[in-house]
Amino acid sequence: MKDKLIVFKIGTSSLTNHMGDLDAEKLAQITSQLAQLHHQGYQLVLVTSGSIAAGFRRLGFDKRPKHIADKQASAAVGQGLLIEHYTTNLMQDGIVSAQVLLTQDDFKDPRRYNNAAQALQVLLKRRAIPIINENDTIAVDEIKVGDNDTLSAQVAGLLKADLLVLLTDVAGLYTANPRKDPQAQAIARVDNITPELFQIASGAGTANGTGGMVTKIQAARLATMAGVPVFITSSQLKNSLPKAVKQEIQGTYFTAQTKAFNQKKQWLAFYAPSQADIFVDAGAEKAMVAKGHSLLLSGISEFSGNFQRNDIVSVYSQTSGKLIGKGRARFSRLVVEELLQFKHPEGTFIHRDDWVTLL
Ligand SMILES: Nc1ncnc2c1ncn2[C@@H]1O[C@H](COP(=O)(O)OP(=O)(O)O)[C@@H](O)[C@H]1O
Ligand SMILES: N[C@@H](CCC(=O)OP(=O)(O)O)C(=O)O
């Protein structure tokens, strides 16, 4: 399938042995399948975990460390070793790979966000495979994506991928954790990610993984809102990568939303820091959510926090108290306060082009 762009995410659980160390044989299985797909004409991106697993023992820890600074130091040692495996293996098939390390800051700052997209697009156009991980060594809480499931969804959305495949150690999402509940049933397809779905997903399956199915469902939510379908499957089945691309293997398929966010709206929805909270009345809520209309000044019932013109604000329903979306303010708080003194305040506070519904 020429030009189809697939983002694969491979978790620590799929790259390690029972001691938690990087397993070169498992990694080689992945690279040979990537090479196969590359030669078929697919554009590929790999988001890979494993830097901590690859580094901790060399740094003198006898098991995977738990403290943040120890993990960061291990990642600094392991990232180089991890990328060396990918580069060497892919080079044997004549494929150029590229290391890209990202943090949440790269998504929050619109300039860095565009830069990341452009650099990745050049790599893809030139048939290289970007090998992405979080920049663990420098990522403190404030700038952390936190898990590679989410990072892969962010990347898939940014690049408008045709499919995101999350490869793990179970063949998709089950009605309960299959490691703990033998009665758990496989779920083949999810059209709607409801809050109930999160309840069936507990944390990581092994001491090596981060987040388990919860972060995978969160990732699926983000990617599908950005218009990218998601397939969760096991990396341990034979030829799982080529089969996953066509869903010819057991797994869970999440359908993409039809009204997907474009790049500008993804930034607004997922990354833009919000400066203030605006509460709107029932009429405005209906007009914005159901009809996609702009928010007029007359629909504002309350606000908290200070905001300037062009700042991003969160909009809540006055009736339910729930967050309904985010948008760009056309006036500062000072001006809004003045305008709302009028009996019939006129003007658009958030234009529909600068608005995303998040219900
Ligand atoms: N409802 C569920 N369906 C499938 N797996 C689940 C579920 N709830 C929890 N899990 C656990 O999630 C694990 C996969 O997540 P994780 O260990 O973080 O893997 P990775 O390193 O691949 O990201 C599975 O091994 C499984 O034990
Ligand atoms: N960035 C970290 C992994 C973070 C992570 O999300 O791990 P996992 O749940 O195994 O995909 C690393 O390279 O070890």
TrEMBL record:
CDD domains: AAK_G5K_ProB (cd04242), PUA_G5K (cd21157)
Binding annotation for ATP: 9, 168-169, 210-216
SMART domains for the chain: PUA
Keyword ATP-binding: yes
Pathway membership, UniProt: Amino-acid biosynthesis; L-proline biosynthesis; L-glutamate 5-semialdehyde from L-glutamate: step 1/2
Classification via HAMAP family: ProB
Similarity comment: Belongs to the glutamate 5-kinase family.
Protein name listed in UniProt: Glutamate 5-kinase
Species this protein is from: Ligilactobacillus equi DPC 6820
